[in-house]
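2024-03-11 09:14:02 DEBUG pipeline.ingest accepted 1 chain
2024-03-11 09:14:02 DEBUG pipeline.ingest length=325
2024-03-11 09:14:03 DEBUG pipeline.predict start
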Amino acid sequence: MCSEGLRERYVNPYTDFAFKLLFGTDLNKEILIGFLNALFDGKQVIEDVTYLNTEHLGSKETDRRAVFDVYCENEKGEKILIEMQRGEQQFFKDRSIYYATYPIREQAIKGEIWDYELKAVYVIGILNFALDDVSSSSFRHEVKLMDTTTHEVFFDKLTFVYLEMPKFHKTEQELDTLFDKWMFVLKNLARLMERPTALQERVFNRLFEAAEIAQFSKENLYAYEESLKVYRDWNNVIDTAIQKGIARGMEEGLVKGMEEGIAKGMEEGIVKGMEEGIAKGMEKGIAEGEWMKAQTIAGNLKNAGLSIAEIAKVTGLSEDEINSL
């Protein structure tokens, strides 16, 4: 069961178990505080955090449930929500905004007169994919409510930070800041066999100690291997679905393009028809592939024993769709 995982010295932080172990437990609170302070880079200094319940229900029974990866508040009562996004979702930004409503709404004081003053809310997304609609080569994006005329921040108590990990390419020799070092660790931890010499800060002592697989108890080792299997299955299903979608789209596009081109009866019409048909066919095939991918992933995760709410969070499918599988 555990032989495959033991080929690696340190855990893969993209797995659910490892991410919550490193960043979501009181035992490793120092790691979370170090990461957040590096992320904020002096804009604020966090001295302590308190972990909050990661499972939330809306105000009504019919409201959809939200399950966060890590949810905490600092010593000033500001809420911090951290999500490790392992795969791209069609409505990722919508989901991010939706999740932000929970730490906002729960600040309402029940049974008392309340003046609506809010504590700041931070939503941090560590993305194991690149955002399709973001052309910038920068891997870090900080988003706030802005006045589109003056380009000034309109409301500074709601902040979204997105980290596109595939866009981070620095080598160990190129790490300039403490935040660079954190990005390097998150992206490369599972591939490291030794601690890099550039990472000598005290907080990394704790991180590498907590991440070493050989130090796990039998229970934690089993839990990690199960989480690793789900992560690998997820990646395999995604790759397979995308390839099938592209292949199907190209085949349909070629046929349709040739038919339209021949109907026009001209060489220009054939070329143009084929190009348009291929483009439309690929678009249709990829869209169908994404839907098939989500269903396949949901089925695999369901068989792996994940809850319906967790599967819905990962795939973007509704709970009714998942229950029907």
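2024-03-11 09:14:41 DEBUG pipeline.report Confidence is low (pLDDT under 50) at residues 1-5.
2024-03-11 09:14:41 DEBUG pipeline.predict end
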